[in-house]
Design brief:
single chain, 15 helices, disordered C terminus
Length: 299
């Protein structure tokens, strides 16, 4: 990438949004920041070459306007933005890099879903088309990549969302019930819990199914991602575009609701003394410890 220093600063400055333009540094500092940007981009993808002025103009249009220009330039994923820009411009070398990343990410993510090979191929091909061509008159999806994180992380969220849309509601509901109830059927060594499981498991299973049905759509979705698809908290946060701590809170809310609702139904349907009821609830609490990482929640 080559370009006159003055032309680069001018091209970049003219493409900035009004909010970012207010934090524009002096020309010397801006020139140094743009040179660093170009250096990082070249280092990431030395085989890709585009006009430097066109590239910095593209970056300017995607800069985080909530931060000073110098900070935003320092934090932006320079190489991945170069990759995205070059793909949008039809560069074959860049597309081979991006397609390899998509295929690797797709294989990693879709492994957790109960999908046939042809379904997985269909999902990845649909994403390819959206990335480069767009759908329904929309711009190519690649143009929405703003370099706030790596392109692989961005692709991972896209694949997750596509896989979730592809999976039917009926299948997901069935799998959620099965996944949640499978936690109850694990072996115990505590004699009291073994006794309670033997005598009350089926009643508890019915109560839990009813409790799952009463969960909000959001909490059902979170639990399904966790138990069926084996997603980590961070991945669920990416799907819902929230912070991981928010997902942790949702999981805690879901567990509290299920415990409370299941207890209510057991009290209503079973004639248990206080001691037996507390033993049953101890069984419930011991089993409703949901995993919070993809490795332990595998589907």
């Amino acid at each position: 990438m080559v370009g006159d220093r003055g032309d680069l600063c001018s091209a970049f400055s003219n493409a900035l949004g009004p909010a970012a333009a207010m934090t524009l540094p002096g020309e010397a500092d801006l020139e140094a920041a743009l040179n660093d940007l170009l250096s990082r981009a070249r280092e990431a993808y030395p085989a890709i070459s585009v006009p430097a002025a066109a590239y910095v103009t593209y970056v300017a249009g995607r800069l985080d306007e909530n931060k000073p220009v110098l900070q935003a330039l320092q934090e932006i994923a320079a190489g991945d933005l170069l990759l995205a820009y070059s793909c949008v411009q039809g560069d074959g070398v860049a597309w081979r890099y991006l397609d390899a990343a998509l295929r690797h990410t797709g294989a990693s993510v879709l492994r957790s879903f109960r999908l046939s090979h042809s379904d997985q191929e269909e999902i990845v091909q649909g994403i390819r088309e959206c990335l480069l061509l767009g759908r329904g008159g929309e711009s190519p999806l690649l143009e929405s990549f703003r370099g706030r994180g790596s392109v692989r992380s961005w692709l991972r969220v896209i694949v997750l969302r596509s896989a979730i849309r592809h999976t039917t509601v009926q299948q997901r509901t069935m799998h959620l019930d099965d996944a949640a109830i499978s936690h109850l059927r694990m072996e115990h060594t505590d004699p009291e819990l073994v006794f309670m499981k033997k005598h009350y498991l089926e009643k508890f299973t019915v109560a839990l199914r009813k409790s799952l049905e009463r969960l909000s759509n959001k909490n059902q979705s979170v639990l399904r991602h966790l138990l069926v698809n084996g997603l980590s908290v961070e991945e669920i946060a990416g799907v819902h575009e929230v912070a991981p701590r928010t997902v942790f809170r949702w999981i805690a809310e879901t567990r509290t609701f299920l415990l409370k609702e299941t207890r209510r139904q057991i009290v209503r349907d079973l004639e248990l003394g206080d001691s037996d009821l507390e033993s049953v609830m101890r069984l419930i609490q011991s089993r409703l410890q949901f995993p919070t990482s993809g490795d332990s929640a595998g589907g």
